[in-house]
Every structure is written in C-alpha cells, then in structure tokens.
Automatic annotation (TrEMBL):
Superkingdom, taxonomy of origin: Bacteria
Signal peptide: none
Coiled coil: none
Matching PANTHER family: PHOSPHOHEPTOSE ISOMERASE (PTHR30390:SF7), SEDOHEPTULOSE 7-PHOSPHATE ISOMERASE / DNAA INITIATOR-ASSOCIATING FACTOR FOR REPLICATION INITIATION (PTHR30390)
Gene3D superfamilies linked: Glucose-6-phosphate isomerase like protein, domain 1
Designated name of the protein: UPF0309 protein JS521_14865
Lineage, top ranks: Bacteria, Bacillati, Actinomycetota, Actinomycetes, Kitasatosporales
Amino acid sequence: MSDSKLAGQFFDAAIGLLTRVRDEEADSIAAAGAAVADTVEAGGRLFAFGAGHSSLAAQDVVYRAGGLALMNLLTVPGVVGVDVMPATLGSALERVDGLASAVLDSSPATAGDLLVIVSLSGRNALPVEMAQNARALGLKVIGVTSVAYAENTRSRHASGGFLRDHCDIVLDSKIAIGDAELTAPGVEAPFAPASTVVTSAIMQAMLAAAVERLAARGVEPPMLRSGNVDGGHEWNGRVMTEYRDRIFYRH
C-alpha cells in the first residue's frame, strides 16, 4: 500500500507550526519557564486549566512520568473532556458567566501561585473570567492560546476581551481559526486539527525551560518518574510525600 498523501501533509503542517512556535515564541516560553521556576522556588503551587479539547494539553502536564510533581489540574465539572452527556454540554458551560469565579473560590489556589490557562480561541467567558479572577486573587497567569482568534473573531465575554488580554505572559500557538490543517476534494469541511500537538509541545517546552532554570539555580525540581520502570513507584511516593502540601491529586 502506498503512503497516504494527506497523512504526510498533516505531519508537514504540524512540523511547520512547531517550527514557527519554537522560533517565534522562544522568548515568551523562556519567560513562562522562569515564572514557573520562580513559583516553585518560592514555595508556590502550580495549576493548569483547559476546557474541552484544550484540557488535553493541561492534563498532559499533570501527574505524569517526566513531569513536575507540583503541577495540578484545576477542574471545572463538565468541561474537562467529552465524557459528559450530551458532549455539547461542555461547550455550553464555557459560555456561562460566573462559573470561573465559583471554581476559583472553592479551589486551593491562592496568592503567589501560578495558573496556566489553555484556550485555543480564548473568546469564551470561562477562560477570560478564569484569568481575570486568578489575577485578582494574586496568581500569576500564563495563557496558551491562538492570537489569531483575538484578531479576527469577536469575544463572547461581556467585557469584549479575550484570554490574551488578562494574562501576565501569553504563548501563541499560531493555530489558524477553525483548527483544521487540511482540505480535500469531496470533503466539504476542513479537517485534521493540530492544536493538541502544538499546544502540548508548548506546555512541555515551558516546563523544560522551568526545569533548566531551577537546575541552574541549584534547586532540585520535584520530578515524577514512570511507574513502569523499576523503582518508579518508590521514587514518586517520596516526592508526593515531601511535597504533599503543594499537590492536590492525592488524599
């Protein structure tokens, strides 16, 4: 069987986006990594939030092998994934005013902590209010979004603002509006979204920069090992115990 032309085109598109982000967002990613390192060194806690498919990139840095043990998932019931019925409920909840405030007020996040908010469009009420309220509480906010949406669509938040307008640091994923890289004859809708690939890479690059910064300062970053390698569970148990006051996915 011959290779798929479209499959190859998707890889080319994703690689192109990754290259753009690497080159054009290098300073912002380094700044975000420094902010994460500052928070870790100062004894703060780290949180990540995303709604819908944007939550995939947030989940990708929480409680995983090779990840920072201090990264916690800030969850909003019903919007984390497509495990709710109907699946459209999550999208509807993203537009509900006041939900972000209620979630933050009942979360362990407090002044001096850091929150990474992932939202491809950054136009819905939930990520915008999440950023606004987090900064009001004294958190540092990093937004991972596509600036193209803020430049070419209308906000769905009452303020008229986008996620990028309420962040200390913005990381631009460069994803085009619509999040579909390919078209083909006989297929009426564009397809093959690349936002998950690119946004997850941005998150991992940011944390790599943070680890680099901590190591350069002589601070041992609390990392998790794979539970599928010998000694991994024991290592993780020690890390989880030592930092239990800054980790919120264990009892």
